[in-house]
């Protein structure tokens, strides 16, 4: 069953219908998004691809089945055991392993001879560089492709680009795309067409580096890792007893969705905080609570993860006449938003002793947090970035090896 809807409408459709499960979105032609429901991936045996569904923090969905075949498209559907396996491996690469038995000099042999293609159809600084550094530390060769300077700017679809790159024999595709479900579409297309470009019908790994408003799984993992490190939970990654606040533009955030799912699966309580236009109650179906009162809850948080307002994903608005990073119907005034939800020095002082401040970047200083908060001793922002490399090394190693075994 397929139907085309304008891209902007579909983003909203995905969000409000996310709890129905089996939602799958992908871009076939520029500006048009196709939605197919309950589609089974043919040929690759990767199972049914779904968008976020009810209770996926508890292990429903097919994230685990996809991961077993060498793809990391979402944290939804991964079991706590699978999450711990990735995080445990990241611990080795971060140099935090208990016995230090894994020799860093041997890391460059792990993916020697493999090729990883970074396909970034949307802007990125941290994620793209971090995947490249991670792949190179494991000995892989990295090829970078962005919309500017490639045939994507000539109207080629994401699926065609991925097919062509796969036909060159790459071992892994790391991709970012503005459409939720784009990496699922790529996995499905690669599996359906595998025999047309590979004699043995082999499918390379696909790793989601952020798809629309859906998920950003490696960001979720590195956020979890950072919290576990600070609260001495690296043995077993059990986050029970910790409360994590995610503040800001939850509605548009793939970072929030991966965080809610992953943190919840490992036992943390998650509370999403922000104005009603950015924090819909429906997000609670993913296993978190919501509040619009930051000041009422800030003193109860162990970690506060502050998100950027994703103006690029909002419908244009008046902007209250102020100079804004982008016009938005969801945020009438950036100044007012900062007053009510910005992490300023007064709110920093209300945090529990030992509580930490996080941000996935890029930070808009003076919009969602002050420079004082971003640069404070409680700020883990640069540790998050550091841990991102270790997490991505773990993900690349596990995914590329899993897909090689399936070959
Ligand atoms: C993302 O790609 O979602 C970023 O890591 C967060 C942001 O863009 O604000």
Describe this structure in words.
- The chain has 407 residues and is an alpha/beta fold.
- It has 2 domains: 59-215 and 387-405, Rossmann fold, CATH 3.40.50.1370; 217-380, Aspartate/ornithine carbamoyltransferase (Rossmann fold), CATH 3.40.50.1370.
- Helix content is 36%, strand content 15%.
- It contains 14 helices and 12 strands.
- It has a 5-stranded parallel β-sheet, with helices on one face. Strands 5-4-6-7 form a 4-stranded parallel β-sheet, sandwiched between helices.
- Strand 8 (243-247), helix 9 (254-265) and strand 9 form a beta-alpha-beta unit.
- Helix 8 crosses helix 14.
- It is globular.
- Bound molecules: D-malate (MLT).
- The site of D-malate (MLT) has 8 residues, from helix 9.
Structural descriptors:
407 residues, alpha/beta, Rossmann fold, 2 domains, five-stranded parallel beta sheet, 14 helices, globular, binds D-malate
Note the run of SSEs as H and E.
Answer: EHEEHHHEHEHEHEHEHEEHEHHEHH
Q: Indicate the proportion of strand residues.
A: 15-25%
Task: Count the E strands.
Answer: 12
Low-confidence stretches: 1-60
User: CATH first level of the largest domain: which class?
Assistant: Alpha Beta
Strand order of the largest sheet: 10-9-8-11-12
What structural class should be given to the helix and strand makeup? alpha/beta
CATH architecture descriptor name of the largest domain: 3-Layer(aba) Sandwich
Which cofactor or ligand species appear?
Answer: D-malate
- SS summary, helix count: 14
What CATH calls the topology of the largest domain is Rossmann fold
Q: Give the radius of gyration.
A: 20 Å
Please describe the biggest sheet, giving its number of strands, its sense, and whether it closes into a barrel. Answer: 5 strands, parallel
CATH superfamily annotation of the largest domain: Aspartate/ornithine carbamoyltransferase
Q: What is the 3D shape?
A: globular
Number of domains: 2
| Fraction in helix | 25-40%
* Terminal-residue CA separation: 31 Å
If you average the pLDDT, what whole number results?
84
């Amino acid at each position: 069953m397929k139907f085309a809807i304008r891209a902007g409408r579909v983003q909203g459709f995905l969000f409000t219908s996310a709890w129905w499960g089996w939602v799958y979105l992908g871009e076939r032609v520029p500006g048009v998004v196709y939605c197919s429901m309950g589609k089974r991936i043919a040929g690759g045996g990767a199972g049914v691809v779904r968008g976020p569904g009810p209770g996926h923090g508890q292990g429903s969905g097919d994230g685990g089945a996809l991961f077993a075949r060498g793809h990391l498209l979402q944290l939804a559907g991964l079991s706590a055991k699978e999450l711990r396996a990735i995080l445990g491996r990241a611990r080795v690469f971060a140099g935090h392993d208990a016995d230090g038995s894994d020799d860093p000099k041997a890391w460059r042999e792990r993916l020697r001879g493999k090729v990883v293609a970074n396909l970034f159809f949307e802007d990125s600084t941290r994620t793209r560089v971090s995947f490249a550094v991670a792949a190179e530390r494991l000995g892989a060769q990295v090829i970078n492709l962005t919309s500017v300077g490639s045939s994507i700017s000539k109207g080629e679809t994401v699926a065609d680009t991925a097919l062509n790159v796969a036909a060159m024999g790459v071992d892994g595709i790391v991709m970012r795309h503005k459409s939720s479900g784009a990496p699922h579409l790529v996995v499905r297309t690669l599996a359906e067409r595998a025999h047309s470009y590979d004699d043995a019908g082999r499918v390379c790994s696909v790793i989601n580096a952020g798809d629309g408003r859906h998920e950003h799984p490696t960001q979720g993992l590195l956020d979890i890792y950072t919290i576990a490190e600070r609260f001495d939970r690296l043995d077993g990654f059990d986050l029970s007893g910790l409360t994590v606040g995610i503040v800001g533009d939850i509605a548009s955030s793939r970072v929030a969705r991966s965080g809610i799912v992953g943190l919840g699966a490992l036992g943390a309580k998650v509370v999403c905080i922000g104005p009603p236009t950015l924090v819909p109650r429906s997000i609670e179906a993913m296993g978190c609570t919501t509040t619009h009162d930051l000041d009422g809850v800030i003193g109860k948080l162990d970690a506060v993860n502050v998100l950027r307002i994703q103006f690029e994903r909002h419908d244009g608005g008046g902007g209250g006449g102020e100079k804004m990073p982008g016009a938005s119907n969801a945020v009438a005034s950036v100044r007012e938003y900062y007053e009510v939800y910005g992490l300023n020095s007064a709110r920093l002082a209300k945090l529990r002793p030992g509580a930490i401040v996080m941000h996935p970047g890029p930070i808009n200083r003076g919009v969602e947090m002050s420079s004082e908060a971003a640069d404070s001793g409680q700020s883990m922002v640069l540790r998050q970035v550091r841990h991102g490399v270790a997490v991505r090394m773990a993900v690349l190693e596990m995914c590329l090896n899993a897909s090689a075994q399936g070959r």
